[in-house]
Input
Amino acid sequence: MSLERQVRLKLAGKRNAEQEAEAQEWIETVLGAKFPPGETYESALKDGIILCKLMNKLKPGSIPKINTSGASFKMMENINVFQKALKEYGVPDLDVFQTVDLWEQKDISQVTMTLFALGRETYKHPEWTGPWLGPKPAEENKRDFDEETIAAGKAVIGLQAGTNKGATQAGQNMGAGRKIILGK
Output
């Protein structure tokens, strides 16, 4: 088996059909239109048109020109402007897939993870009223304690660290016993 085939099979194993279906359903709900019938998830997203339309729904005007026909590089340009709009929307660079992940279908699972990162980011935009994708991110819950409460907390040994009750070495026999020879 060639190395390229092994890599392709490994990446295909990372894909999660449930997450892809959830991401597709979210996109269809946001856009108000179904994916083209008979097209797979990755082939429907490949030209970047659906992704650009999604971004324009989330943040109107974020992608002013969407290429709907033309050479391959024009379609790849859609993916690049989508990625740029993602970053401007607040999706961390770390969560953004690379163009080849989608265009050459090298790592579709990474594309899905990017869509989930975008879905999480929508929670942080009050102008977006839903639907959302994925769990709501945690918000900061800063607490201020007085000195008395802090001192009381330092005196308590939390059970999360465990307990040493009953922790003895009684009954342990490892290796040969120690021999003490008297008189030498």
About this structure: Residues 89 and 121 are 8 Å apart (CA to CA). The radius of gyration is 27 Å. The chain has eight helices and no strands.
